[in-house]
Design brief:
Order of helices and strands: HHHH
Structural class: mainly alpha
Radius of gyration: 11 Å
Oligomer: single chain
Distance between the termini: 32 Å
């Protein structure tokens, strides 16, 4: 599956550059597409922690919380 390959690729990227907010964000999107919502949430939190101005990470984190009914 394409998203499984993406998850593997972004995990390798994060091993090389642990502070890359965009890599964490992209990993979150791949997890979301695979319906791994807990992993997606974890990655979105890490992304916005690394870059508090990453508006897409904040937006998608709110979307995940809404999905869980956590609002």
């Amino acid at each position: 599956c394409y998203f499984e390959q993406a998850i593997n690729a972004f995990e390798k990227c994060i091993v090389l550059e642990k502070t890359d907010a965009q890599a964490h964000y992209n990993l979150a999107l791949a997890h979301f597409k695979m319906r791994n919502y807990d992993d997606s949430e974890r990655c979105l939190i890490r992304s916005k922690d690394l870059n508090p101005n990453h508006c897409y990470a904040w937006n998608n984190l709110a979307f995940v919380y809404n999905l869980f009914g956590l609002y």
